[in-house]
Design brief:
heterodimer; A: about 350 residues; alpha/beta; 8-stranded mixed β-sheet; 4-stranded antiparallel β-sheet; globular; B: about 290 residues; 13 helices; flat
Chain lengths: ~350, ~290
């Protein structure tokens, strides 16, 4: 991918002041929800942002869309700086990036029919006339696998998966180039998750969309992403192509995340050491490397000096002082899979391939 | 999904209209009928009333209901109660409507602004509301009557002012809940103007709270207006007003109870009918409750 990125984020930060006092509130601290995040998303690419709850994934997503204002940093969309655009320019920008939400029960206005929900963005951007908008709404419904007679219904008449499809159709209504997917499947059943994920991939192939895909489920991420950025406490600790990240994770946190993926292998029981301790408060992040409080490899340098995100291989960057010298075995989950379990999994895989 | 089932879904009949949905509920149908009847009676009072509301006949003073030519009796001045009630209904309904419309409307706007521009306006607006709330309606009425002189106008103004803070608080509360929902963010992500966002996405989803409070307040306003009239701040004799009529009848409660009781019954019916209708309207307007 050598072309110019569709969206380019540099040193993006969102700090929330914490105030105390009734009338003359004094600022007593700052929550560093997002603290210096940089990444690019190219055309037709899916960049997944992963990390545990509260690490700033969703905040980053909303910052990119300018739904909340960044405290620092720049966002460029298709080469144009959009960090401070207002008015008509901002509306034009909004037309090119859309969002899909996590909770399908909160993301649709219960007072609007499906047609109204789908035509609303077109009305706002003055696309077409009433008849063409309605036709487009039906087209969108078919595109996401719903049917024409669904158009006159209200959101409460649909299931969670169907609502998520409507949410996707709404995002597509204005032909955006980038869609931010904020945990689009984590509120759905596993079987529905697969449908929605495949729909998203299908749409990406047909419409050439770019996704910024927020998730905490690594199995989902492995399926949809081209590249993955791992976030911890408001910072990106590792960013790499999917294959490189899963095969050779460099950052201890990434390794811990990967090791926490459940494996269908009973012999692994007791061998996986989950991370100790809790995520430190973003109100008072630890000095040096933010992960050092929980890192099994932490050394003195980690407690003092904040590691920079640096390239360790082509396209693979990580923020760890000792990325090259970390012992592999401790958290390597691949070797933990016993041979019998591997054979059994291979049989499953083969059966799956034959069916397709 | 079987083929027949699907065909049935495709051929779904038209959704019933608002009126049809209202009439399905017997209590709602009755309240709608009552409200329409009351409104018609108030509007057509000059046509329906058998006599002039100010026509007193001292030979008929305090005649009980059922006397010849006086189905509801006559008051202490010998005026026909039916006529007085019809004209009184006019004044009371108008008072209730205007006060709820103006006070509720302004209050709702303040509430929406406070919730939507929470960062800048919530503090100032809600402190203003707190200040307004700290004055009892009666006191506001007294002050306004002192400025503009007693009369219907002063009462309506006082009642409107007293309604603003209550509505503002209720609307702000429910708007704050709605503001946190994703569809508001989705609407914002489409790039619409704030006005459209409030009007089309925020306000409709706060409607049930507004409806419930407006109808409740309508009843309260009529009663409060009566209280103000009773204090001599509102409708001045001989203008008929339901509350004023009830308070005039108070002196004769032992000899001619109907003078006070009949207007009270009418107030009761008005308040009840509007409350039930408001509830029914709220349900009928909510797509989630449609069958």
């Amino acid at each position: 991918m050598t072309s110019a990125p569709l969206i380019s984020v540099r040193d993006l930060a969102k700090h929330y002041p914490v105030r105390k006092g009734l009338i003359l509130a004094k600022q007593i601290g700052t929550v560093r929800a997002v603290d210096g995040v940089s990444f690019d998303v190219h055309r037709g690419e899916t960049l997944a942002l992963v990390g545990e709850s509260g690490c700033g994934k969703s905040t980053t997503a909303r910052l990119v869309l300018r739904l909340i204002e960044p405290s620092a940093g720049r966002i460029a969309f298709d080469g144009n700086d959009i960090t401070e655009v207002k008015g008509a320019a901002q509306r034009a920008m909004r037309r090119r990036m859309q969002i899909i939400f996590q909770d399908p029960f909160a993301s649709l206005n219960p007072r609007l029919t499906v047609t109204e929900t789908l035509t609303e963005p077109m009305v706002v951007h003055r696309i077409g006339d009433d008849a063409s908008r309605r036709a487009r709404a039906l087209e969108l419904l078919r595109l996401v696998g719903l049917r024409d007679f669904h158009a006159q219904r209200y959101p409460h008449e649909f299931s969670g998966g169907q609502r998520q499809r409507i949410g996707i159709a709404r995002a597509l209504a204005v032909n955006p180039e980038l869609i931010v997917c904020d945990e689009p499947v984590s509120a759905l059943d596993v079987s529905i998750q697969a449908q929605v994920i495949n729909l998203l991939k299908d749409l990406q192939a047909r419409l050439g969309l770019s996704y910024l895909f927020i998730a905490h489920d690594l199995a989902v991420v492995k399926h949809v992403a081209d590249r993955i950025a791992v976030m911890y406490l408001g910072q990106i600790v590792e960013i790499a192509p999917k294959r490189a990240l899963f095969e050779a994770p460099k950052h201890p946190y990434t390794r811990a995340l990967l090791a926490a993926i459940p494996q269908p292998d009973p012999s692994r029981r007791g061998q996986v050491k989950p991370l100790q301790g809790d995520v430190p408060s973003p109100l008072n992040p630890p000095p040096g490397c933010r992960f050092h409080t929980r890192c099994p490899f932490a050394q003195d340098r980690c407690r003092v000096e904040m590691p920079k995100l640096r390239m360790v291989r082509e396209g693979h960057a990580t923020a760890c002082h000792f990325a090259e010298t970390l012992p592999l075995a401790d958290l390597d989950f691949r070797s933990g899979l016993s041979t019998t379990a591997q054979m059994r999994l291979a049989i499953y895989e083969n059966a799956k391939k034959q069916r397709v | 999904m079987s083929a027949t089932q699907e065909a049935a879904e495709v051929a779904m009949p038209e959704r019933p209209g608002l009126l049809a949905r209202l009439l399905r509920e017997p209590a709602a149908a009755l309240s709608l009928f009552l409200v329409v009847a009351l409104l018609l009676a108030a509007i057509c009072a000059p046509l329906l009333a058998p006599t002039d509301p100010y026509d007193n006949d001292l030979t008929k003073v305090m005649q009980p209901p059922g006397s010849p030519g006086l189905p509801l009796g006559a008051d202490a001045q010998g005026r026909d109660m039916v006529t007085r009630l019809l004209y009184g209904l006019r004044v009371s309904l108008l008072m209730g409507f205007v006060a709820v419309l103006i006070g509720g409307g302004l209050g709702a706007v303040l509430g929406f602004l406070a919730a939507f521009y929470q960062r800048w306006l919530d503090g100032p607006i809600m402190r203003l509301v707190d200040i307004m709330l700290s004055f009892p309606a009666i006191l506001v009425g007294l002050a306004i009557a002192a400025i503009f002189g007693p009369g219907i106008f002063s009462v309506v103004l006082a009642l409107s002012v007293a309604t603003i803070p209550l509505m503002a608080r209720i609307v702000r509360g429910s708007a704050l809940v709605v503001m946190r929902l994703d569809y508001i963010e989705a609407a914002r992500a489409t790039g619409m103007t704030d006005a459209r966002l409030i009007w089309r996405h925020l306000a409709p989803n706060c409607l049930s709270a507004i409806f419930v409070f407006a109808t409740l307040r309508f009843g309260q306003v009529i009663l409060l207006g009566s209280a103000l009239s009773f204090l001599g701040l509102g409708a001045q004799p001989p203008v008929p007003e339901l509350g004023a009529m009830a308070s005039e009848g108070r002196n004769f409660l032992f000899f001619a109870p109907h003078i006070a009781v009949v207007p009270c019954i009418l107030i009761f019916i008005v308040v009840l009918a509007f409350n039930i209708l408001g509830d029914a309207l709220r349900d009928a307007l909510d797509p989630r409750l449609r069958l």
